[in-house]
Write a structure and sequence with these properties.
Shape: rod-shaped
Number of strands: 0
Strand content: under 5%
Order of helices and strands: HH
Structural class: mainly alpha
Largest sheet: none
Number of domains: 1
Number of helices: 2
Radius of gyration: 19 Å
Length: about 50
């Protein structure tokens, strides 16, 4: 593999890892893994 191809491969792999972390963060937020939602709607609006 040429040096240029290896550099591009490393750059793409780093980008892929970053995107996977972002997807996991979004998934955790959607699934509320950090804790249950507040039962009071007004309180939920303030918390977000």
């Amino acid at each position: 593999m040429s040096i240029e191809m290896e550099r591009l491969r490393k750059k793409l792999m780093a980008r892929r890892e970053e995107l996977q972390k972002r997807v996991q963060k979004i998934t955790d937020d959607v699934r509320h893994t950090s804790g249950p939602l507040s039962s009071d709607f007004a309180e939920q609006a303030v918390e977000r």
